[in-house]
UniProtKB/TrEMBL annotation:
This is Pilus assembly protein PilX. It comes from the Bacteria. Residues 15-64 form the Type 4 fimbrial biogenesis protein PilX N-terminal domain. Residues 124-219 form the PilX/PilW C-terminal domain.
Length: 228
């Protein structure tokens, strides 16, 4: 019996198999391209978040320094581009008693200056909490994370508000703020200051998640005077 081969059948099968291989390779190439694009997007997002955090961190540090200058009554002099004593300027943004709450005078009964607005209160970024709770700020006390409470969250001092510090168009500095707690000390003529600074990044939830940096430090004016 003779067997006859159908002309072109094998070549058609080979072409079909080759086409299948090509399609598989194209699919793999597409998957690799999509994976690479997603990886690049993820890396870009991570880099953007890191840059945003760094800007916010630097702004929070600047707010701490700005608060210290606020306490020391120093302001930015546009003429010399340096910080000088508020008293050396003809006009300055520094705190004035006529405008509201100011820092206590060590030669007077400074605690009474805050009682008028209640034992626990904040005004223009200056906060006072009665009792020893203000020192430890333990959980459950009024001073514990007070900057998150509705009564105090808006009672901050904006960066540069009382020192004239320039923001240089930096959005992180424009959002920087601080609160200064006045803490009574029985063995000192003046209080200890605890500064809480907060800054937010430029990225929002729609662009990869918001950034918030919170920093704290203590400032002892008596120790500064001894050094100076």
């Amino acid at each position: 019996m003779k067997h006859f081969q159908v002309p072109g059948r094998r070549s058609a099968q080979q072409r079909g198999f080759s086409l299948f291989i090509v399609l598989i390779m194209l699919l793999l190439s597409a998957l690799l391209a999509v994976g690479g694009a997603r990886t690049a997007q993820l890396l870009e997002s991570m880099a953007g978040n890191q840059r945003d955090y760094q800007r916010a961190f630097e702004a929070a540090e600047a707010a701490l320094l700005d608060a210290e200058r606020d306490i020391r009554q120093q302001a930015f002099d546009a003429t010399t581009q340096t910080y000088v004593a508020c008293s050396a300027l003809v006009s300055s943004p520094c705190r004035k008693a006529a405008d509201g709450r100011v820092f206590p005078d060590r030669d007077t009964g400074w605690v009474t200056a805050y009682v008028g607005k209640g034992a626990n209160s904040c005004d223009r970024g200056i906060c006072y909490f009665a009792g020893t709770d203000s020192v430890v700020a333990a959980s459950g006390s009024e001073a514990y994370r007070f900057w998150t409470r509705s009564a105090y969250v808006d009672q901050y001092a904006a960066y540069g508000a009382f020192t004239g510090a320039p923001t240089a168009g930096n959005p992180a500095l424009a959002s920087a703020r601080y609160w200064i707690e006045v803490i009574d000390r029985a063995r000192s003529d003046e209080p200890l200051y605890r500064i809480t600074a907060l800054s937010t990044g430029a990225r929002t939830a729609s662009t990869g998640g918001g950034t918030r940096v919170l920093l704290q430090m203590s400032f002892d004016p008596a120790a500064v005077r001894k050094v100076n």
